[in-house]
Amino acid sequence: MIKTGWYIIAYDISDNKRLRKVHKKLKKNAIAVQKSVFIARGSEADINYLMDQITLSMNTSEDDLRAYPIVDPKSLWTNGTNPLAQGRNMNYSSDKSQKSMKKAGKRRNKQELKIAKRIIQFFH
After folding, report:
1. What are φ and ψ of residue 44, in 5° steps?
2. What residues does each domain of the chain span?
3. Can you tell me the distance from the alpha carbon of 4 to that of 13, in angstroms, rounded to the nearest whole number?
4. What are the angstrom distances between the C-alpha of 81 and each of 52, 112, 120?
5. I want to staple 12 with a disulfide (CB 3.0 to 4.6 A). Which of 30, 55, 64, 99 is the partner?
6. How far apart are CA 40 and CA 61, in angstroms?
7. Phi-psi bin for 12: left (phi > 0), alpha (psi -120 to 50), beta?
């Protein structure tokens, strides 16, 4: 039985043309968490195949691509928003920033709902 798991895939691409190709390929096969960080679910063979396909668009002497296995997206520790972590966010604020934090929180909640809906569609 092939076991599937979660992976964080991150890249550092030095050329804009290659960067767009890599980003486009990952957007089709994973969910963006940050600009160059994605989360994907699949077997080890699936992730290796995806990385091999992405490597075809890279210059391996200048660019970097990595995949890190993780137990579950909910286990990620973050500073800021992470709809996958459900309640493990750590936000820092001062008295002066409370008003702007409320506005940012409303925008963040809308973004989190959009991302959560996309995740549900992607993995179900």
Report:
1. -60, -40
2. 4-70, 78-123
3. 27
4. 30, 8, 17
5. 64
6. 25
7. beta
Which residues of the chain fall below pLDDT 70?
1-2, 77-113, 116, 120, 122-124
Nearest alpha-carbon partner for 3 in 71, 103, 82:
71
CATH 2.40.110.10 fits 4-70, yes or no: no
pLDDT for the residue 3:
76
Distance CA(44)–CA(42), nearest Å, equals 7
**Pair 30, 39: CB distance under 8 Å:** yes
**Closest C-alpha to 122, from 50, 47, 27, 52:** 27
